[in-house]
Amino acid sequence: xxGPFIRIEDTGxxxxxxxxxxxxxxxxxxDIRLNDPSVSRLHAEFVxxxxxxxxxxxxxxxxxxxxxxxxxxxxxxxxxxxVSFGAARGRIGGVPREDFxxxxxxxxxxxxxxxxxxxxVLTSLCRPALSDEAFVAPATAREIADDLVVTxxxxxxxxxxxxxxxxxxxxxxxxxxxxxxVVALGLVRPTPVVPPQRAAGPPETQPATTTSRRAS
Length: 216
Description:
InterPro entries: Cell_Proc_Reg/RNA_Proc, FHA_dom, Sig_transdc_resp-reg_C-effctor, SMAD_FHA_dom_sf, WH-like_DNA-bd_sf. This is FHA domain-containing protein. Residues 192-216 are annotated as: Disordered. Residues 22-72 form the FHA domain. By secondary structure, this protein is α+β, with helices and mostly antiparallel strands. Helix content is 20%, strand content 20%. The strands form two sheets. A six-stranded antiparallel sheet has the order 2-1-11-10-7-8, with no helix packed on it. A five-stranded mixed sheet has the order 4-3-5-6-9, with no helix packed on it. A hairpin with a 2-residue loop joins strand 10 and strand 11 (88-93). Helix 1 (116-126) packs across helix 2 and helix 2 crosses helix 3. The protein is elongated.
């Protein structure tokens, strides 16, 4: 088989990767479908650039994507690398060998400078992905607007500037790509969930007792 491919561990199926982008996940609309509950509907994608192949995590679930056992955001792949999507695994083949450090990630080391409001937008955007529920998508512009009590138009303007700052290209799943980059850079972290406490009521009082003495 010419070109890069992935061999699915559970089934042994060998799937060639598309010339540009190959999506992988549990949903019906992906290119490679993995029937495993630990896999997100749109979990990751393989991207080919000339002779190079890298994998991008898109699921934003707590199960994440790993290469040779290590969690990644984006990672250049070598021939023989094992990629895990949740509990599902596959081995990469057909990648030309080169004297290239496999530990190099394509993610930028430094985050762009952000305003206070942009941080608020990113925090609201990523909040669903950092919840205890698995397989959730980032917040929509409408949900961010409701959360921050601003107009949806204002949120969309902030998102456009953030796409430019983080160099997120136009295309599908743009919000997911932005949220994935923000989480990978550690700009937004899960906030501990404080269990609701019952409102304290007035202290209980013992009923008053009266003692009567019979007149002697």
